[in-house]
Design brief:
Length: 82
């Protein structure tokens, strides 16, 4: 599928800037955008929100993953019993 950001923005009736910022990871996929994408591509809005959630978790893991490993002890682990 050869679809430009501008073509998608026009089809979804959103500003082209919104699509550009989503593509470049500078803006989240909101419920409104997920509904529009779902309607356009004949898919579930949960699919689009799920992609956003997966991305958010990956970013958070990169940012605070090691810190969490040091600070938060998993319930039932050997470290939690000490």
């Amino acid at each position: 599928m050869n679809l430009s950001q501008n073509q998608m923005a026009l089809a979804l009736r959103v500003p082209a800037r919104r699509i550009n910022e989503i593509v470049h990871g500078k803006r989240r996929i909101t419920a409104d955008t997920a509904l529009r994408l779902a309607r356009y591509f004949n898919m579930s809005p949960r699919f689009w929100l799920g992609l956003q959630m997966d991305y958010d978790l990956d970013v958070a893991e990169d940012e605070v993953g090691e810190q969490l490993n040091r600070e938060v002890v998993a319930l039932g682990s050997e470290r939690s019993k000490q």
